Amino acid sequence: MAQRERDALTGRLTTGHEWDGIKELSTPIPTWWITTFLISIMVALIYLWLMPSFATTKSLEPGLLGWSSSGELREDQAIAAAAQAPWRQRLMAVPLEEVTKDEELRRFVQAGGRALFNENCAPCHGVGGGGQQGQFPALLDDDWLWGGKPADIVQTVRHGIRNEDADSRQSAMPVFGDSLSKEQIGNVADYVLTLADKSKADSRAALPGAALFKDNCAGCHGENGEGGRDFGAPRLNDAIWLYGGSRDAIIHQITSPRMGSMPSFASRLNEESLRMLALYVHGLGGGE
Predict the structure, then answer these.
(1) 274, 154: one domain
(2) Which of 92, 189, 224, 256 could disulfide-pair with 250, CB 3.0 to 4.6 Å?
(3) Interacting residues of 76 by C-beta distance below 8 A, sequence separation 6+
(4) Weakest-pLDDT range from 34-43, 55-64, 164-173, 233-242
(5) How confident is the model at residue 2 (pLDDT cuts 50, 70, 90)?
């Protein structure tokens, strides 16, 4: 058994262990530290008794107080909903086109619509509605495939575009790479590039792609490239291009068209929220 002794230099007891003439001092844990440790254990046990604990994949021990962060969130949401209820009722009682005439209601719609947009739309269309070229359209300009009036936007947001919703907006551009030669597709692209150039209004009819455009494209995009909302066909006679306005980009779109999809928000947003969101989008600058 190790023989404990008092160290001559420090006056403290040793553990009795010695290695190569080096002795180990006995330095027990301070009383204050042990006391604090025991108190922390007691506090933890009391916390487990009072607060939610012992969670499983299917249930949770609610604790004596019955408090939970999710419950607190529901209470806060209920309070907010109660505060907003008069404004939401007011919103539903006014035709969409007349909401902006009521300044107080307009401010409420603007604030609520911005929050809804940032939560549901900004990941694709951008926080300011600027869109992402090649993926998601901008909401700031005057190009609306399905209409830019508040009621049109409500319909688009509610049911979406090209999705599983039976009432979603549907359209499809044919794959002309299967029916036209590369030369013909190049001629159509050359013709399309002239549609936004007013100086070529009289001369474009003589281009090789004019007849091809009339036979294959004008039915949806219009004779002068003005677009067709019945089909969700974009305008071709301006400088706004979702997938790029270069000759190569147009050829690619004619050959193997890309068509995006937008989810339906009918199951996510109630009618008041749909209205607020649509009016906010309408107010971004491109609404009609």
Answers:
(1) yes
(2) 189
(3) none
(4) 55-64
(5) low
List pLDDT tens digits, range 14-72.
888 888 888 888 888 999 999 999 999 999 999 999 999 888 888 888 899 989 898 99
Reduced to 3 states (helix: H, G, I; strand: E, B; else coil), residue 8 is coil
Helix (H) or strand (E) holding 231: none
Q: Is pLDDT at 1 greater than 60 in this prediction? A: no
Domain with 15, as residue range(s), is 1-65
* Structural domain includes residue 72: no
pTM listed for this prediction = 0.77
Domain count, the chain: 3
Burial 146-181 (b: 16+ CB within 10 A, else e): eebebebbbbbbbbbbbeebeebbeeebeebeeebe
Instruction: Find the CATH number of the domain harbouring 277.
Output: 1.10.760.10
The residue with tokens 């090209």 is 162
Q: Is residue 5 part of a domain?
A: yes
Structure tokens, 117:
């947009």
- For residue 54, give the 3-state DSSP assignment: coil
Non-local (6+) Cβ contacts of 62 within 8 A are 52, 68
272 and 135 together in one domain: yes
Contacts of 156 (CB under 8 A, 6+ apart): 146, 147, 169, 262
DSSP assignment of 94-152, as one string? S-GGGGGGSHHHHHHHHHHHHHHHHHHTHHHH-TTS--BTTTB--SSSS--SS--SHHH
Give CA–CA dist 208/189, Å, rounded. Answer: 10
The Cα–Cα gap between 44 and 38 comes to 10
Task: Tell whether 275 and 136 lie within a shared domain.
Answer: yes
Examine residue 90 and state whether it is found in any structural domain, yes or no.
yes
